[in-house]
Design goal:
This protein is of the alpha/beta class. The protein has twelve helices and 13 strands.
């Protein structure tokens, strides 16, 4: 116990130093105090119940970076993301159609809104055929002197009852190269680059667009959720990366993290993903789902647990094999695959995106014409 108390005290002292270090770094990098902005993280829900999350911060002033931007410029941008100054106690109002709701930010500047719209007329619900629908957020307090109210117009993913299935996908080493199993490479890719220098795996954009579209002739697109253990501070980078590479929009679910030893040492990768995915499955029942991950972390194990917890809700698990030379991982992966397949759920380990796409075509989840188009592109 004495050792734990000493470690805790030491971490507390390190946390206390963060403010001073941040101030010194801001001076070194020539950063000035920034205006207030609303960060809106694209939420999701049904025509009757919406989940909205965001944050009120001082604007980091992060600019779009060119592909050959210097390491220093990228470091400066990444520092801006993580040194962000949250605005505690800010008051906002959200507008969705004729519905309104106010909320106050917590001590880290975050806000969560639950729109319950169960009293909407049946005719209005039936007209909600678009996957993405408009929503507006307005900052009421605090406002800079002589400033107009700050408003942000965005979109929220509203899942129709006519959706065929949903998709939940990891990001790092599933959609884009990250080298999550190699710490130094991961740091270089994740923190010393930018949204233009990151590279998606071949075929990802085509595959995910096909999954979102589903079978031809269906105007109600399928929802996609991107889940990562990265910090909310990197949300804009992921959003821009997907836009640049024509990967379809979806709700991006990240995690709250402070760059402190106490936070980093206590993080549980498996628990985080389960905590993000479970509410999705609960909110969108009985919609079935396809889960996509990679062999570099514990995606296969996490998804296996979801198959047990949500029987008959998981259509398939796709695992990108990024560790083909790791014998132990391959053995564990095959053991999980056998257990999952015994439940009747599809489990596919794929070296290339095309393999997963052809499997989805064979099961009539996506348009078969896309396979030929992808090979020719």
């Amino acid at each position: 116990m004495q050792g734990i108390r000493l470690i805790s005290a030491a971490m507390g002292r390190l946390d206390d130093l963060q403010g001073a270090v941040k101030e010194k770094l801001s001076d070194l990098l020539g950063l000035e105090e920034d205006p207030i902005c609303i960060m809106f993280y694209r939420g999701y829900g049904t025509p009757n119940h919406l989940h909205i999350k965001g944050r009120v911060l001082q604007d980091q002033g992060i600019k779009l970076r060119e592909e050959n931007a210097s390491v220093w410029k990228n470091i400066r941008n990444m520092y801006r993301r993580f040194e962000s100054d949250e605005v505690e106690g800010a008051r906002l109002r959200a507008y969705f159609g004729t519905a309104q709701q106010e909320v106050v930010t917590d001590d880290e500047g975050y806000f969560n809104i639950e729109f319950k719209l169960s009293d909407r007329p049946v005719e209005a619900v039936q007209k909600d055929s678009q996957l993405w629908q408009p929503i507006t957020l307005e900052l009421l307090e605090p406002l800079p002197q002589h400033s107009e109210p700050i408003k942000v117009d965005s979109e929220i993913m509203v899942v129709s009852e006519r959706a065929q299935f949903g998709v939940i996908s990891d990001i790092d080493d599933t959609i884009m190269h990250t080298a999550a199993t190699d710490l130094l490479k991961m740091i270089r890719i994740a923190y010393l680059g930018n949204e233009r220098t990151r590279r998606p795996f071949p075929g990802v954009a085509e595959f995910y667009r096909a999954l979102q579209q589903g079978q031809p002739g269906d105007d109600n697109k399928n929802p996609i959720f991107y889940v990562s253990s990265s910090a909310w501070n990197m949300y804009d980078l992921f959003e821009k990366f997907m836009d640049f590479n024509h990967i379809p929009c979806g709700s991006i679910l990240l995690r709250d993290i402070e760059l402190s030893p106490a936070n980093l040492l206590s993080f549980d990768h498996e628990s985080h993903k389960a905590e993000q995915i479970t509410p999705i499955l609960d909110s969108l029942a009985p919609l079935p789902f396809i889960l996509i991950g990679d062999s570099g972390q514990k995606d296969a194990w996490i998804y296996q647990q979801l198959v047990k917890d949500y029987p008959d809700r998981i259509l398939a698990i796709y695992i990108r094999n990024v560790t083909p030379n790791d014998a132990k991982r391959q053995h564990d992966l095959e053991a999980i695959a056998q257990q999952v397949r015994a439940t009747g759920c599809e489990f596919v380990v794929f070296p290339e995106t095309q393999v997963a796409m052809e499997h989805a075509i064979a099961h009539h989840w996506i348009d078969g014409a896309l396979s030929l188009q992808t090979k020719q592109s």
